[in-house]
Each structure stands twice: as structure tokens, then as C-alpha cells.
Design a protein that fits this description.
mainly beta; Jelly Rolls; seven-stranded antiparallel sheet; 2 helices; globular
Length: 279
């Protein structure tokens, strides 16, 4: 079987205050995301969200169900989002083939029975995966990088200029609760999601990539007045509970994919935290 998974349980913010560095990493860091010729997944108890990656090299990889789902097939009661962060590749869903360039996204709705990730002929395709429970079936659809709902944010003087590309969100296509997008920092900018915020009605996972060799990102999580750092390298991800801020600063510019699930699909439903309020 070419699929591996781990389970992460939810944590109360009062408990996280006492966590050591190692315990924080065990609870919230997702590493590795990509393993050659495997599908690597983490099943979280935050909104039953799943995050991971598929890295087919020597042959196709099939998305089989995993024991925590208690389902006949993976998407029996779920929806799935995929973003390719590697070379051009393709995904087959119930016999339909979708070609994915770098940055392209694919939404697969509840009820899709067979999902296969194919190797790239041009290098290594890296399929980043998010999945959430679904209560209804919406049509599967590819969303090209250029089709994203795009916004510019931040200022050069604050080192947080970035382009936000909303790929799998309700302004682009219908989903049950899953939302995904890709944010790229401009050259010379290092801060993401600053000013920071929380959104108590949704959890989130950040996947960091495009980090130059030898560079790192410090991701900040925790309650706004009880923040904790997690240092991440390229192709690592971090789970952000609903009560937690999620922002970061790198030693170089980078990109990240954000994925959310929870109570609603309102992208703007967040509680802002000014930099002066952070502790």
C-alpha cells in the first residue's frame, strides 16, 4: 500500500502554553509532506481536516481510503483540493484526466471514487492535498493558476508585500467547507499574514514552499498574547487551531498554501490582531 497516515488530536490553548519546543512540533508540525512514491497524510481532529502530499516518481499513486475514515473509498463523505507545486503532472478522477501545471488547483467533490496521481514527464510533480468532510456533492473542476481570485496585500516598508491567489474559494467555485489558496511574497518581503488574525469558526493549515536552500521560516502560532514559534524548512506544513494566530517571517522570500475548513465559507470572517497586541 502506497499511502501512510498519522492522526493528530486537538489541543486546548491552556495546555499549549506549557508545551516544550519538541511537544509543539509533535502536535502541529507536518513533516514530511512529500515522500517519493507515497501518499503521505495527516488526519487532524480540527474539523476532521486532512493535509498531506503525493509524490509519484516510478508510477501512479492511488488515493485509497484510510482506517480513520471508516469509508469504502476516500471521498465517500469528503471533498478534496489539490495544488501542484512541482513539475507539470496529471490527476485522474473517475476516468477524467486533469493536467496540472505548477500552481494549478483541482477540486474533487464528494462521491468521486477513484483518484490517481501520475508522475511528471518533465521532472517531479508534487501534489499538495487538503481534504474536509462534505455534506453535498459539488462538481469537480480544475482551477488554473491564472484563474485565481487575486489580491495584492502589504507594503514594502513593512516587509510584507504579497500576492494572494484564492484558488478553491466560493468566489471561484462552490465547495462544502474546503478553501485553498496560494500566497507568494515579493522579493525583499518576509512577513506573511501580518497584521495577524484568528478565525474562531475555521481551522487552517499552512504549507511552506519555495524556501531557498539553507533558509527557514519562523511560523508563529498560539493565542495572540501567548504566541509560540515553530521553525520550518522547505516543504513542511503546520496546523493552526481556530484559536491560534498564524503568521510567519522568513530569512528569505517564499510562498505558502493555506487551506481552511470549518463553520463557514466567508474568507473575510476573521478577528484582526494588530502587531502591538501580539505577545
Amino acid at each position: 500500500m502506497s499511502i501512510s497516515y498519522a492522526v493528530r488530536y486537538a489541543a486546548h490553548p491552556d495546555e499549549v502554553r506549557s508545551y516544550s519546543t519538541q511537544r509543539i512540533r509533535e502536535a502541529f508540525l507536518i513533516d514530511p509532506v512529500f515522500v517519493a512514491d507515497r501518499i503521505q497524510l495527516v488526519y487532524t481532529h480540527y474539523d476532521r481536516f486532512i493535509a498531506g502530499g503525493a509524490m509519484p516518481k516510478s508510477g501512479p499513486l492511488h488515493l485509497d481510503t484510510i482506517p480513520p475514515l471508516r469509508s469504502e473509498y476516500f471521498l465517500e463523505r469528503r471533498e478534496l483540493g489539490i495544488i501542484n507545486v512541482g513539475s507539470k503532472g496529471s490527476v485522474t478522477a473517475d476516468g477524467t484526466s486533469y493536467s496540472l501545471e505548477y500552481g494549478d488547483a483541482l477540486y474533487l467533490g464528494q462521491g468521486v471514487r477513484e483518484v490517481t496521481f501520475h508522475p511528471s514527464k518533465e521532472g517531479t510533480a508534487l501534489y499538495y492535498i487538503n481534504s474536509a468532510p462534505a455534506h453535498a456533492a459539488f462538481p469537480s473542476r480544475k482551477v488554473a493558476f491564472a484563474e485565481a481570485d487575486t489580491a495584492e496585500a502589504g507594503q514594502t516598508e513593512n516587509a510584507n508585500r504579497r500576492t494572494i491567489r484564492k484558488l478553491l474559494v466560493n468566489s471561484v467555485l462552490p465547495t462544502c467547507q474546503l478553501q485553498m489558496g496560494l500566497t507568494e511574497l515579493k522579493a525583499g518581503s518576509v512577513w506573511n499574514t501580518m497584521p495577524a488574525h484568528t478565525h474562531d469558526r475555521r481551522m487552517e493549515v499552512y504549507f511552506y514552499f519555495g524556501i531557498p536552500e539553507g533558509q527557514v521560516v519562523c511560523h508563529f502560532m498560539g493565542e495572540p498574547t501567548e504566541t509560540r514559534p515553530i521553525w520550518l524548512g522547505n516543504h513542511q506544513a503546520v496546523i493552526s487551531p481556530p484559536w491560534s494566530v498564524h503568521c510567519g517571517a522568513g530569512t528569505a522570500s517564499y510562498s505558502f498554501i493555506w487551506g481552511m475548513a470549518g463553520e463557514n465559507l466567508d474568507y473575510g470572517d476573521m478577528d484582526g490582531v494588530t502587531p502591538a497586541e501580539m505577545r
